[in-house]
Amino acid sequence: MSFSFKHDMNKKVHFIGIGGVSMSALAEILLERGYKVSGSDAKNSPTTDNLKKNGAEIYIGQKAENINNVDLVIYTAAISDDNPELMHARELNITLMTRAEFLGLIMKGHKYNVAISGTHGKTTTTSMISHITLKENLDPTILVGGDLDIINGNVRTGKSEYFITEACEYKASFLQFFPYIGVILNIDADHLDYYKDIDDIQNTFSKFVTLIPNDGYLIANADDARTAEVASKAKCKVVTFGIENGTITAKNITYNDHSCGSFDVYENSTLLFHINLNVPGKHNVLNALASIACAKVLKIGYDSIVSGLQSFGGTHRRFELKGVKNGVTVVDDYAHHPTEIMATLDAAKNYPHKKLYCVFQPHTYSRTLSLFKEFSNAFSNVDELILADIYAAREKDTGVVSSDMLGDAIREKNISCKNFHSFDEIVAYLNKTLTDGDLLLTVGAGNVVEVGEMFLKPKYKV
Question: Does residue 322 carry a catalytic annotation?
């Protein structure tokens, strides 16, 4: 089935799992462009309510009969082969596409596709580039993996040739894309339920680089050894960035009392401008440098770069201030990989606090098992760690690994660590323990954010 966004508006597209972050964004783009859209999800949510308001047919529960006069069915890697909608679509010989394939198809309709990849930092860097291109009035289409206030959500449909999206390496999905500019922020061990090892991951990023045309650009982190190695073999144009190495670098870095960086931006030995970030941590200095390198490739003026970056205060669930109660500050962060956790805790060091308490919810059994040693070494900067049970996501508990096991390994390192098996227990403990001046971090990609929200409710008193 061929798809044109200027014609064939009578085609109907069905999304299995339409309430997800990435799927709902694609559905929004189609609705904006006049397509008929339907989709199913496990339960109602503000996202499905908004899609329904905008004209989508929404089904709660996934049933064969939901595939009704449909021309194309979109599904994600998380959908199993025995899904009733997927099975019925196959029986009817309806064209099927994965989310990544369909996103690649949409990208084909744009000239300047910017695909931001890397194990860590994709959402933040995509958001930074979005702020910069909006300041420059490029009218981009934007897909970001979190809610961004400047676009009132996670998707923006523009009418220009510019398309900005995250490019996720999970199950090599970004190999379906058509980048003109490809960004690699870093290459680290993750998704080892799919990849054999770190070398397999690096090889997949190398394949991603081959998708960039010879007149396109790779923007690569020169401080990251594996990324630098991939960049050295690229056939397209290459722009590097880094704090220690690269074409675009940061010098004279200082941090304020909320750990937000200020620094001079250099291109080789030439000073370009000074910038003050409003997001914390060294990792966000690197994310900003990647965004600056991308903006320079797009020939965006320095005024738009500076004002775009300085207007960015973070996306939701990325070191997001949730509130303060009785002198206790609550911050939430999506970090779910040991490298990300250490970056978040490093940023928190400069945040005003007496004691740092971290509530961590491990995300998936496979990640916890494959990176068990790294997780056990990631929390040396906390005064006290509270572990919630593992968030299963798409997986089943086989009993091979648990949050209790991780807690035992962490306690062996003489780090104060407690395990609880419900959010109510965690909040009750925080209620008894936290005092004026303490900092509470809730960390993880599951629903651990609810711990901070429960603590901040008036009925919980410190």
Answer: no
Pairing of strands 384-387, 95-98: unpaired
The answer to whether 123 is a known catalytic residue is yes
pLDDT (tens digit, 9 = 90+) per residue, 165-201?
Answer: 999 888 888 999 999 999 999 998 887 677 889 999 9
Prediction pTM value: 0.80
Distance CA 286, CA 121 (A): 9
DSSP-derived secondary structure for 249-291: EEEEEEE-TT-EEEEEEEETTEEEEEEEEEEESHHHHHHHHHH
- The Cα–Cα gap between 138 and 127 comes to 15
Q: Is 166 a catalytic residue?
A: yes
Choose the catalytic residue: 123, 124, 141, 368: 123
108-310: in CATH 3.40.1190.10: yes
State the SS3 of 25-64. HHHHHHHHCCCEEEEEECCCCHHHHHHHHCCCEEEECCCH
Catalytic residue among 28, 85, 166, 384: 166
Contact at 8 Å (CB) between 222 and 241? yes
The answer to whether 140 and 150 have CB atoms below 8 angstroms apart is no
Superfamily of domain 12-99: NAD(P)-binding Rossmann-like Domain (3.40.50.720)
How far separated are the first and last CA of the chain, in Å rounded? 60
User: Could you say which of 122, 135, 296, 322 is catalytic?
Assistant: 122
| Short-list 365, 367, 372, CA closest to 390 | 365
Q: Rounded distance, CA 115 to CA 113, Å? A: 6
